[in-house]
Structure formats: structure tokens, C-alpha cells
Amino acid sequence: RGTVESKAEVYESPANEFATPRFTVELWARRTGGSGAYGSPATFRYASGDPLAQQGWMFYANPANIWQFWIGHDADTWETIDGPPVINGEWIQLVGTYDGTAMAFYANGTLIERRETAYVPPDPTLAYTLRIGGGATEDANGNFFFIGDVDEVAVYGEALTPAQVAAHYAAAFSPNVAPVIDVQPRSTEVLLGGSVTLSVGVVSGSPPSYQWKKDGADLPGETAASLTIANADAGATGAYAVEITNAAGSATSDTATVGVVGPEATYLATILRDGPVAYWRLDETSGTVAEDYVGNHDGVYMNGVVLGEPGAIANDDNGAAAFVQANQTFVEVPWAADVNSPEFTFECWAKLTGGTSYRSPMTSRGDGPQEGFIFYATPANVWEFWNGTGAGWSAMGGGAIQSGVWYHLAGTYDGATKRFFVNGQQVGSAQVGFVPNDLDVLRIGAGATESPTGNYFFEGAVDEAAIYDIALSPARILTHYLAGRPAAPEIGIALDGGEVVLTWNGAATLQEAASVTGPWSDVAGATSPHRVTPASGPVFWRLSTP
């Protein structure tokens, strides 16, 4: 049992016994205290030098009360996988592996994530210890002490398979016990025509069987530990559960609801469907009022914002607002509680056209302590989503910016996890703390909202800014992006006098490949209709839009 600054030291003998290029470490842990701080049930690491080199592995219960598995790859950052929440007083099996290519993290026999990355073990000639109940093994005194119990610690020189990990977990339970569900299927939303997988984690001392149900009725043939719904349509909407049976009895999972969503007829209808608490279309052509389309959060155009610019949304003649960094132009919106909620989504379309510093298309923040949320175009011309934790800023990158191109940006926080989306695709997620802005204004086209004059002025245009008091699902974020894009072009194919005739509508580039999986190349000079004399071997065509 660990208490403050208690630990067990395991010395390597021979010196390289733990410092293998492939490994598995497993243990059982039960935290009983130490919430709000890092606590390590086991660590074998090195973190020192100039430049900083971080090597080895560790398990943590982190300050956000999340189990984590970390490995080092001789760089100044650690590779980290987040696991389930820490529940004080409850035992959990933790397993971390590295197979020479990828790290993997398991909790209670279930794979959480496998991620390809490099790994470098500590230098075996330095004889660092493996520490149970504490971390920072490069320090003789240690740090990150674990408050609680640790049991059944094992280290292997190879990566165990998922089946082996599951078998180790199941071995802790009697075969005469009915199955216990430790990972419930989770409710989700899926894009119309997309696919989604529901899964369940089970503890069973004997092999279990599965039967998935929809709205209470058995789904024929769906007898695996996971259920995949492909090409989802409206009929896929419903309540799903799974019944698990073994020799000793059965258990039924919680119900997981699946919703199928798609863009509405217009961009405006798509946004309104999801219930924003504030929505600035920025489509005014004159005046100084930036109208909130849904609420009472009208903003003020400051310092000569350019109105009536062409907007981001396809097939929509509403304009956008353009901002000039040199003139310090922006929209200012008074503080309000419902646009600074503990859980949120904020989004906008942004087109960068210049500038070299940090430039913010949208900010609601305080600084001292750090609060709220920010979008930035960085000096390196990369999109970033920042949030205040009350003790600093958490930044997340979102890819390079091409000047003069519209991007849809969305950031969400669900009370535990932040997610960043660019053009409908999730580009990052992390479990972090968040403190809402509790005082200062919101700005569109500038940042530093705690400053009366502002800073980090944007150079370019912003359109369709909105805030929600919930974290929208990834599927709904994607529908917002798709609703703003042109309709997908359609391609037709026919035979005419021994030639293949390809026709399509809209502005699109014809591409061809010898395989459906590519590689694809543009067909030079192709316009609709495009005639092709068939050649030997298969040819595939598709359309690409900007």
C-alpha cells in the first residue's frame, strides 16, 4: 500500500533486464487518495539531459483523475494514451505494451488504443530502477507518489497480444460467476451514409456468447463483442443493447442510442437544428451592429470592419465580414453566461489573407488566471484551439493554413475532453481542465479579450460564428461543414460507338486510376463530356472538388 513518498524499488539484474526494445508491463492498482495530482503505480523511466531526453514508460493517475500510459522516445515530449476515469477505492488492471512499432494501453482486459510511435528504453548502463508506487526513477528520492494499493506487477520482454491480456484479466475471476460488463456501449451519432461501431467490455471466467438487440429485438447474426452499422440510414436510428451469456448466467448491457444525422436543406437550417445560444452570420452590409440571429448577444463592429464580403457558404448569398490587422478591426460582444458555459462548442468559418503574428478569428478569454477559448492562426500559419485551465493554456494544433482559402473551425469541450475539428474532421483531442471566461467580452476578428483595446488582430474574413452550451458530436460538426460546401458532383458513364463517355456536373476535376484504391491522378484537360477509348486492363474514374 502506498502512502505519501512510500515506494518499492526493483533494481535491474542483469543491467538490461527491463530496458528491452519491446515490453509489456501489467499490474492491478487501487487509488485511495491523492486526487488532483500525478500518482504513478509503476515507473521505469529516464528524463534528463540537455537537450532533454525522455525514455522508458510509466502509468499515471493524472490530476484530471484519468488513468494514463506514457512512453518516451528520446525527445522532449512523452507519448501519452488516456484511459478510463480513476475511481477511488476500485481495483483496475492496467497493461501497457510496445511491440517495436506501436504502443498499446489496456484497462481491465480491453484495448483502449494502439498508436504507432517510436520507443527508447532507459540506458541500461545507468542502472535506473523500476519503481512501484512512485515515479521519476531518474531521481533517487522519486516523485509522483501513488496513494493506494498495487498488486500483481509483471514485466515481460515482449508485447502480449490482446487475447493474452484479456486472458490475464479473466483469470482473476471464477468461471462460476455470471458475466460482468465493465465497458458499456456508448450512445453516439453517425453521419447519414456513414458507419459506426458499438462495443462492450466483459469480464467472464468462461467463454461468453453475445446477442445484439435493437429496440428490444434480436439482430440476426450479430453475435460478436462489437456491432458495426454500415451505410447508416434513418432506419439505423434506435436503442441498442447486447446480452452476454456464459455457463453461469447472463447480463444485459445498458442501452446505447444511435442517431443518424445529415445536413438540412440549408446551412442556416443545419445550424438552427443544433440549438446555438448565439449565432452571428456577419452578413450585414452597413451599420455597426453584428446581429445575433438567435438570441440577445448582438455585437458591435469596431474600427471599420469591412462588410458585405463574399461569404464562405456555397449557394448562399449572405456575405461575410473582413478584418484588417493594421486597423485593429473586430466585433465586440458583451460577456454573457450562456456563451461561456462549462461545456461548449464554438465554431466559425475563417479565411486568412495575411499577417505574421498570432491572429485570432474568435476569442472569449481571461488571462490571470487563464480562462475561456480561442482560435488562432499561429506565426507558423497553423490553426490552433486554445483553452484556459485556470493555471495556463492548453493548445492543440490543427494543420497548415493556405492563404485565401475558407476553413471551418470548431472546438468542443464536454466537461472532460476537448476536441478540435478543421473542415469537419477531428484533428485532435485531449483530456484537460477548463475554466470558462467569467468576466470579459467575446471578440470576432481579435483576441486578448481581457484588454480594452484587444490584440492578435485577424487579417482576413470570418463568417457564420456560433456558440453552443453543449459539446456537439463529431457527426454534427461534420454536417455543419458539409452544409457549407457545394453539393457533391455526380458522374455518369456510358458507351457510345466503342468509346466510354464520362459526364458530370459542377466544377470538378476528373481523376483516374488503375485500382479503386489508387493512386489517383488528374486527367489533363478533361471537361464534360469526356470521351475515352478503352484500353486493356481496368480503369477507374472519380471526381475531385477543391
What integer is the average pLDDT?
A: 92
- The helicity comes to under 10%
Shape assignment: globular
Strand content: 35-45%
**If you consult CATH, what is the topology of the largest domain?**
Jelly Rolls
Kindly state the number of beta strands.
Answer: 43
Q: What's the helix count?
A: 3
Keywords:
mainly beta; Jelly Rolls; Immunoglobulin-like; 8-stranded antiparallel beta sheet; 3 helices; globular
Structure in a nutshell:
This protein is mainly beta and 546 residues long.
General description of the model:
The chain is mainly beta. Helix content is 5%, strand content 45%. It folds into 4 domains: 8-170, Jelly Rolls, CATH 2.60.120.200; 180-261, Sandwich (Immunoglobulin-like), CATH 2.60.40.10; 267-484, Sandwich (Jelly Rolls); 491-544, no CATH class. The longest helix is centred in the C-terminal third of the chain and has 11 residues, at 474-484.
Which helices and strands, and how do they pair?
Elements: E1 8-10, E2 23-31, E3 39-48, E4 53-61, E5 66-72, E6 78-85, E7 92-98, E8 102-107, E9 110-116, E10 130-132, E11 148-156, H1 162-170, E12 180-183, E13 188-191, E14 196-199, E15 201-203, E16 209-214, E17 217-218, E18 226-229, E19 238-246, E20 249-252, E21 256-261, H2 267-273, E22 278-280, E23 289-290, E24 299-302, E25 306-309, E26 320-323, E27 330-333, E28 344-352, E29 359-366, E30 371-377, E31 382-388, E32 393-400, E33 406-413, E34 417-422, E35 425-431, E36 442-444, E37 460-468, H3 474-484, E38 491-496, E39 499-504, E40 509-513, E41 521-522, E42 530-532, E43 540-544
